[in-house]
Design goal:
Rossmann fold, binds uridine-diphosphate-N-acetylglucosamine, about 15% strand, six-stranded parallel sheet, alpha/beta, single chain
Amino acid sequence: MKIVSIVGARPQFVKAATVSRVLRRDPATREILLHTGQHYDDNMSEIFFRELNIPEPDYNLEVGSGSHAEQTGAMMKRIEEILLKEKPDCTLVYGDTNSTLAGALTSAKLHIPVAHVEAGLRSFNRAMPEEINRIVTDRIAGLLFAPTQTAVSHLTHEGLGDITCFTGDVMYDSVLYYKGWLLKDPEKYRTPEIPAKYMLATIHRAENTDNPVNLKNIFTAFSELNQDIVLPIHPRTRKILQSQVSLPENVHIIDPVGYLQMLKLTLDATRVLTDSGGLQKEAYFLEKPCITLRTETEWVETLHDRWNIITGSDPGLIRQAVLSEHPTTPIRPAFGNGKAAEMILQKLLLF
Ligand code: UD1
């Protein structure tokens, strides 16, 4: 079975690392890896391929940045050429980025079946580009791999239950697998020159970076927290920050880091503050309390016992959440058994 896997942005590399490893072990599958080039800086892209042993992409479209339409359109044009040439049995798309949408749409129009990893996530907030990408991708895909039972129920509710299977979350597989690497050689992944005790933060969502009020509120809250905060900074946030916000002294900005260094930063942090979907889950899997700097989350399973607290950009709520007690109940096994990628392979072989 010939499969074209389509990736392009940072969170997709982490998911593809785990799925590719399993696909390539099985002689019945042949994977062609297509990188759209949505992320292109070394520390947003290549570093993941190097350190997670992801095979070199067979194609890199190098589309780079642009408006949503420019970026998605440029990807579709190039993906079409490659799909026409490769004639795969199916394509595999991941998550909810513009690369996901471009891959799914191009493939469906060529009548090549599409399978979607991390299907069924919903924030019910259509102002998010990711929500539009998810809804459209799930609608046109032929096989939907749901990471949680909540995702299964969303898809069932939308009439897509027949093509949905619960696989568990490949990001959970990834954390279990790569945590072993960290524990074997913790020094290798330690970030130099950061405070010994810190909270870890990330901010990159358009709803925060492109809204000056939200961004200012978040940094006002950070400045009042009286604790050190380490913030690996996404390039879009860096650009906006320079012109809009003066940096509080307790916030330590560092360049974007690879997956393993990020897991280590999470493991060693006291708490996580983030607007990333992936990091909310990684914090949960690593048993770190998380504060979500958004007004909703797709990962509702992480909310029990206040393992994850939703604050948006409200300084009062952020402060309150940081002062809250550490959760006392264990995390729940809502994200599968760490074998989501194997399940995906088995279902793909029958697709
Ligand atoms: C994308 C995804 C988002 C995901 C995130 C992970 C969409 C709509 N959004 O957002 O769901 O959580 O990836 O990081 O697909 N830039 C660089 N170098 C890079 C990449 C980006 O400088 O290697 C800068 C550019 O100024 C670019 C901006 O970041 O315009 C935004 O990049 P883009 O890929 O459009 O979206 P992300 O914010 O990364």
